[in-house]
Amino acid sequence: MIIAVDGPAASGKGTLAEGLARHYRLPHLDTGLLYRAVGLAVADREDGPDFEPAAIAAAQGLDPAQLADRDALTSAEAGVLASKVAVIGPVRAALFDFQRSFALQPGGAVLDGRDIGTKICPDADVKLFIQADSKARMERRARQLEKRGLVVDRYALYHQIEARDARDMLNPNGGFYKAADAHLLDTTLLDIEAALRAAIEIVDRTMALKAGDR
Length: 214
Ligand SMILES: Nc1ncnc2c1ncn2[C@@H]1O[C@H](COP(=O)(O)OP(=O)(O)O)[C@@H](O)[C@H]1O
Ligand SMILES: Nc1ccn([C@@H]2O[C@H](COP(=O)(O)OP(=O)(O)O)[C@@H](O)[C@H]2O)c(=O)n1
Prior knowledge:
Helix content: 55-70%
Bound molecules: adenosine-5'-diphosphate, cytidine-5'-diphosphate
CATH architecture: 3-Layer(aba) Sandwich
Keywords: ATP-binding, Cytoplasm, Kinase, Nucleotide-binding, Transferase
Strand content: 5-15%
Pfam family, one: Cytidylate_kin
Mean pLDDT: 95
Subcellular location: Cytoplasm
Binding site for ATP: 7-15
GO biological process, one term: pyrimidine nucleotide metabolic process
Number of domains: 1
Shape: globular
Structural class: alpha/beta
Number of strands: 5
């Protein structure tokens, strides 16, 4: 079974994808980490003239070992860099095969990102699109960063997330929209457990309907 989980920044898609993977005993890939690793690899060239070719080379040479440093990868700065390399078509093309092979491993997988239901796994068995209002998303990200001992300027964080979402939505190479057959799950008023219960219910119901069709 392949489960695609998409949604905007800090909507809770990673947490849900991890929970679904645990529940159904499937491997999980957070595809945002790939873009974050490419972004970090070219951080010193940000907005410079050779940013684009350097990002393409970094994506083509990406080594899964680069996904290990979670603290660096999940920083707010890495998120901004990720969204800048994510608009470069050849970067997306270079990362496609890794994501697709992960999805197609025997038994299936859970992948979360922005274009899983639309581009990476248009054939996924179940697609979820996770939403939460911007203030709730900012507050979740703020608390996540504060738990690491970082001092967070909520006003700046809110604007940074809005700017990243806007760049993502306008990404000409993206596919960052809710797939027509994706189930919308708004987690604004749900805690992590309630959101996971709702997601499991959607997956079970979708799979039961599919089994009934056969
Ligand atoms: N439904 C929820 N209610 C409250 N906090 C949540 C919820 N879902 C996720 N979180 C928290 O919000 C933060 C961002 O969640 P995450 O899953 O990393 O989001 P995303 O992958 O969409 O960026 C994490 O600290 C996570 O524990
Ligand atoms: N499948 C994906 C996943 C992430 N991304 C890009 O990578 C950035 C970081 O993604 P992420 O999922 O790690 O970010 P959060 O939603 O966790 O904040 C996004 O803002 C997108 O620009 C992408 O283009 N395609």
